[in-house]
Amino acid sequence: MASARHGSQAGHPDSGPGEYENLYGSDSKSSEHEAALTRLEDVFKDRTLLFIGFGMRDKYVMDVLARVLDKFKKYSRTHFALMCDDADGEPAKRLWTQYNIQTFRIPVTERRSLIN
Prior knowledge:
The protein has 116 residues and is an alpha/beta fold.
């Protein structure tokens, strides 16, 4: 499953951060909000995802991932992320222990050659 969370066509639920916040970040319990959260939880629970170019700092996404992992424990899928190599490896450890995301670290020199 490939998906772009921002920059999609106007009027589509994924059209930008404002719509995204309305669906996933709202404290309201509207049926649209609940349906969006349930769908996102199902995707995280039932599918293996590869995060590419995603900063892993999106509060809404990380909160849902944490809920899915807590709720379904061993039945939750392992996900993967491509990340730039960092000296201490702390973000990679946190993603694995808190969110069940295995990281693949790309040396910065390789990352630059991939971009160009």
